[in-house]
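TL;DR need structure tokens for one chain.
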Amino acid sequence: MRLRYSFRMYPNGPQRSALARAFGCARVVFNDALRVRETARAAGLPFVSSAVLGKRLTEAKKTPERAWLAEVSAVVLQQSLRDLDTAYRNFFDGLRGKRPRMGAPRFKSRKDNRQAVRFTANARWKITPGGDLSLPKIGDVRVRWSRVLPSVPSTVTVVKDAAGRYFASFIVEIDPAADLDRMPATDAVVGIDLGLSHFAILSDGTKIDSPRFLRRAEKRLRKAQQALSRKAKGSKNRDKTRIKVARAHGRVADARREFHHQLSTKLIRDNQAVAVEDLAVKGLARTRMAKSVHDAGWSAFVTMLEYKAARYGRSFHRIGRFEPTSQVCSQCGVKDGPKPLNVREWACGACGAVLDRDINAAVNVATAAGLAVSACRARVRRGPLPAQREEAGTHRDGQLTVVGISSR
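>> reply
TL;DR here they are.
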């Protein structure tokens, strides 16, 4: 399995200038190649191959208008063409139904929130004995290593985000056997019901509060955005304030991502099988709950659960979004219809069990995925049942039998 490890980089002034030059050259090569293909498409000509684009790039370096492309590593420019091929491939696969549909490749801008260049092994980059990252035509950049790489990386991508932070992203091969040994053996299974009041409700009755990182930072974000709106467009003060706004949003995103990582790792470590519901996040994001839905970040969390389950040998199940988890009693399986959101607890009309709405849904998620969840873990209690016609009777032999008495 291949994984990506990211580390924070701290380039100095000349290195930041060299990286900005690399970002700009990669962007120009991408846009030039995209323009060639779009021009051919508009003229009704065949699709321009990658080999033809590579030859045009080599010829462009010899012209006065594009001679500055030789100031950066050639691998960076070639990888930019590979990125364009990937964008077209994803677009066509979406049209064929092989993956979710996405838009056609678009032209890149120097004002985009994310700038990136990629170095492969052909670029001869390396990690120095002192722990710096040596990049061709850039230099030795200081990196803060938060953990040890499990193997020798094959590629490194240098990323600059909207807040002006630099990251080195490595692709490494991991040993599946070593990952399996890291996780303890367990037979526990869990169903997860995602929500807004509580971020996650587990089938064993555990409720995990929603941190609401965006809601808690709204006041600070509002002041930063107001300060940005007062700055004149094109001024240096506006650029400085824009970075402050981006850093404030970055802190919120980082805190949310860290919460997702910690919770997903805990659930994978403690359970052999995990089941979640396939939520219609795009649909919910168009309702009045849009801000809370985006603040929760359900899709990112479920994606982490899925890849960590595959990495550590756990089972991951995703049930359909139309499964009536909130309408079915988890004790007797009777479906008694939909309920408004303000109904948080209800009593089953068939068996009399008083059920918590969210815990009942989590148990039904696990049941729909084929996981055996004990009913006693769902924290339900028996409600009052109507008395039977005969509470007690006497047989002819004088023995007493009790009928219809329910235990509480």
